[in-house]
Write a structure and sequence with these properties.
Elements (H helix, E strand, L loop, with lengths): L3 E7 L13 H7 L2 E7 L12 E4 L9 H10 L3 E2 L2 H7 L4 H7 L7 E4 L7 H6 L6 E6 L6 E7 L3 H16 L4 E5 L2 H6 L1 E7 L2 E8 L8 E5 L4 E5 L3 H22 L7 E8 L5 E7 L10 H11 L7 H15 L4
Parallel strand pairs: 1-2, 1-3, 3-4
Antiparallel strand pairs: 5-8, 6-7, 6-8, 7-11, 9-10, 9-13, 10-12, 13-14
């Protein structure tokens, strides 16, 4: 019997898997899967013959989102599904989730079609404190800026930043900078097949006030099991996401992987920062690689029975010739 084929999808900038996932191909092959790596916009790849295509290190999608979304819809067997991928690669999804009752960081949206002049952009900034300017379509901390509203030069730099993005036809998000990020960092809740796997702790990315980061540095400080408060908040977000999936697909569907980024709100709960079914958080360990293989192969001798049961999702797809 021929092995089931799986293609792990990367990008030209990061053609190989991340350091965390080094050896992932070998581990999948050892579990009876014909695994390989391919770049998503490589014209020489025949996606009809690629088996199940699993999005991994596709960090350049923000610079080529329209092309990336078109590619996703042309791949016959893609995890996560193309409709979900399209929805989650533009942070306007935060408006959808906010309507579902998910607490998100208060955001002012600046849209190209508003045709705002420089003064109007300036008046959209907070009157005091620090704030963040970033594009609605972005990945890897690119093109984000942290500014002091009480500093005239900083406000000018923020206006220049926002106007440049708007002139490029890109939507802009303006958010207050939360001091809790400096104090506690950010948390990424990582889900495999709809089950919370682990939590990744990350240090604050925007450490230089009044500057625009071409690409902010992501620093992982550790990974651990989520506490009960994180689990409850994560389930609230995950449930809202699945309601959105049902609306888009006409049916619910477990996601092979999902990352939910949260930050303490200073009031005993959390704000949602963003979600991603496209790029998982780096963990600084082999944890994500091992659990990813487990979720995909349906073999979980070292995980709780609950995870073993859900991981059968992929195994059932295999039996139904999805792979």
């Amino acid at each position: 019997m021929a092995k089931k084929r799986v293609t792990l999808v990367t990008c030209a900038q990061y053609p190989d898997l991340s350091e965390d996932e080094a050896g992932l191909v070998d581990e999948l092959n050892s579990r009876g899967v014909d695994a390989r790596i391919a770049i998503w916009n490589d014209p020489h790849v025949d996606w009809e013959e690629a088996g199940v295509c699993v999005i991994r290190a596709v960090r350049d999608y923000a610079a080529n989102r329209e092309e990336f979304v078109q590619w996703a819809h042309q791949v016959p067997r893609l995890l996560n599904p193309a409709d979900v991928t399209e929805w989650a690669t533009d942070k306007h999804y935060l408006l959808n989730l906010q309507e579902q009752g998910v607490p998100v960081i208060p955001t002012t949206w600046l849209e190209p079609e508003q045709h705002l002049n420089k003064h109007q952009v300036h008046t959209r900034f907070p009157a005091y404190g620090e704030f963040v300017v970033k594009p609605a379509v972005s990945s890897g901390g690119r093109e984000m800026g942290r500014y002091d509203a009480n500093n005239g030069m900083a406000r000018m730099a923020a206006a220049t930043h926002a106007n440049r993005l708007l002139q490029e036809g890109r939507s802009v998000m303006v958010q207050r900078y939360l001091s809790e990020v400096d104090e506690h960092g950010e948390y990424s809740l990582v889900y495999m097949n709809g089950v919370l796997s682990h939590s990744v702790e990350k240090a604050a990315m925007l450490t230089n006030p009044n500057t625009t980061e071409v690409q902010a540095q992501e620093t992982v400080t550790g990974n651990r099991q989520p506490n009960s408060e994180e689990w409850i908040f994560g389930e609230k977000v995950r449930s809202a996401i699945h309601r959105m999936i049902k609306q888009r697909l006409g049916h619910d569907q477990h996601l092979l992987f999902l990352r939910i980024d949260i930050v303490p709100d200073g009031k005993g709960s959390y704000y949602l920062m963003e979600v991603s079914p496209v790029v998982l958080a780096r963990t600084g360990s082999v944890l994500s690689r091992t659990q990813f293989v487990t979720a995909f192969s349906g073999k979980a001798p070292f995980l709780p029975a609950r995870i073993v049961g859900v991981s059968g999702y992929i195994a059932r797809k295999c039996r139904n010739n999805f792979i």
